[in-house]
Structure prediction request, 159 residues.
Amino acid sequence: MDKQSRYRELLSQIEVFANADDNPISVLSNCAAVMKVVFPKEYFWVGFYIVDGDELILGPFQGAPACTRIKFGLGVCGTAWKEGRSLVVEDVEAFPGHIACSSLSRSEIVVPLFSDGVVIGEIDIDSTELSIFDDVDRKYLEKAAEMIATFMAKLTKVD
Ligand code: SME
Prediction:
């Protein structure tokens, strides 16, 4: 299956998981798991960081143990939060301040989760291959982030 078809499959599964429960740990865990299942080789590490005050804290993920807290503006994740946009990093070693959770990571994509225009968390994906992520990944992952952020936002809304 080509990359676009795999992303379409991924989006339909994320839509199911985002509506299957109201517990963020369970929903984000299944979303991370299905992302790893659909892209087992391309995604060396895939998971969520969630905004907590002036830090991102590690959420559900698939892959090797990772750093638990990242400050606003630091690393690829903290920079994507500060700039409020997705970042595609072709070579992590060329990114100033990159935080190396694993020495095997070579490239990375970070996509923010927005609620009312505010970053509430992020999808973070690392690959062991250089330059593996492009605009196709960004476009589909932004759609996935939108579905997941809508789910997260519903949890905090008071009617
Ligand atoms: N590389 C990230 C840190 C998180 S790990 O990749 C899982 C960064 O520079 O923010």
